[in-house]
Amino acid sequence: RSSTVKWTAQNKYSTKVEYKPIRSVLVANRGEIAVRVFRACNELGIKSVAIYSKEDRAHIHRLKADESYLVGEGKPPVAAYLDIPEIISICKNNGIDAVHPGYGFLSERADFAQAVIDAGIRFIGPSPKVVHQMGDKVAAREAAIAAGVPIVPGTDGPITTKEEAKEFCAKHGLPVIFKAAYGGGGRGMRVVREMSEVEENFQRASSEALSAFGNGAMFIEKFIERPRHIEVQLLGDKAGNVVHLYERDCSVQRRHQKVVEMAPAPHLDPKVRNQMTDLAVKLAKHVGYENAGTVEFLCDSKGNFYFIEVNARLQVEHTVTEEITGIDLVQSQIRIAEGMTLPELGISQDKITPQGFAIQCRVTTEDPAKNFQPDTGRIEVFRSGEGMGIRLDGASAFAGAIISPYYDSLLVKVIAHSKDLQSACAKMNRALREFRVRGVKTNVPFLLNVLENQKFINGAVDTYFIEENPQLFN
Ligand code: ADP
């Protein structure tokens, strides 16, 4: 197997970082997550700095920061937030101390992390070397194996021909799942159950990957039947201390994308929980993981679990972990980037005790009646659900906000925290019913159907749940 050698040779990223006090943070992102980071900065007495594309010039994330700068003029709306040289020069020209990448956009780009560091600015995240290693499916799996973490059988590296695909399927048996080797967000994935379908599906998945990610290379894994998606939140520091903040269950997915997330995972065998969290910490220690990160697993009904990937960044669903642990992950990220250790932050494994149960619903401007087609326009009326145990993380959730077609359709994350799954569901259900949004369609009716489903309330769902229950769309 040549993949390790190949990966090592490709690894041009440094591990050296310079720690220094952070007085200003630029968020290389937009919308909800930019505002989330600004709030953390504000509470720490740190200046917050936004970037915005021309399309976002009236967007609230620009106004929520202490300072803001236009990026990517003349570029397409998404490209603006990917403009590394311009973002770096904004940082340099304005004396910015640190950059937070949020999620999506540049958050998993080792070259971005490296460019930030080379400019003498702190990158709020793992070292570029680790970002690179975790973003490379083959290298990440090798690290998992070396740390003793079970993985799903898969191809040794990215493959590009249908012959290689057929060979893997013949050797390992079906079903399998095709994944874009350089992709994410569930796109370019295909499950194959019949030998006769391998060729055509490979070709289709590969061309989908090529148009979505600019690279048609694929990765094949054995498909785990009826899995639950369970992931472990980690924090690591410069001294090599790593703690876990327990797990989240993100099994409620539509087209392999998370819709409702919760913590802790319902009915998880405590033995399995211990093994998973232990192995996640081992993996992080093995690679020298610093800052916040997540190790994702698929679990089958027999209690077996398999590593799928590490997300070397903050995740959309970090909120539910914050609710049950009381630890502000974004503030922790900033302090760790300054060089503070976990003990200095008062964070130690024995002091992390989950309290109660938290659920997050992603309220999007998508129309469930029209196959979740994104809706756009001006929000005419907006009232949200509030009250005890409800948290709202959003940016465009107000009357007068313009929902543009250019970016993802997340409107607001609604988080309910209560003593157990059933009462958190009741709270979420009540809060979502209080929402009044006019002017754009939202997925709230769909979320309410999920929350009223008995299987869901019993905490008995796997990743097939939405697909198997078409009545949720009515
Ligand atoms: P992405 O990086 O695109 O989000 P992931 O590898 O995290 O992709 O997988 C996303 C989802 O796809 C998982 O949560 C799971 O529902 C499904 N999935 C991925 N790999 C497998 C597998 N080997 N067997 C069954 N389901 C899988």
From TrEMBL:
<protein>
    <recommendedName>
        <fullName>Pyruvate carboxylase</fullName>
    </recommendedName>
</protein>
<comment type="function">
    <text>Catalyzes a 2-step reaction, involving the ATP-dependent carboxylation of the covalently attached biotin in the first step and the transfer of the carboxyl group to pyruvate in the second.</text>
</comment>
<feature type="domain" description="Biotin carboxylation">
    <location>
        <begin position="21"/>
        <end position="471"/>
    </location>
</feature>
<feature type="active site">
    <location>
        <position position="313"/>
    </location>
</feature>
<feature type="binding site">
    <location>
        <position position="137"/>
    </location>
    <ligand>
        <name>ATP</name>
    </ligand>
</feature>
<feature type="binding site">
    <location>
        <position position="256"/>
    </location>
    <ligand>
        <name>ATP</name>
    </ligand>
</feature>
<feature type="binding site">
    <location>
        <position position="221"/>
    </location>
    <ligand>
        <name>ATP</name>
    </ligand>
</feature>
<feature type="domain" description="ATP-grasp">
    <location>
        <begin position="141"/>
        <end position="338"/>
    </location>
</feature>
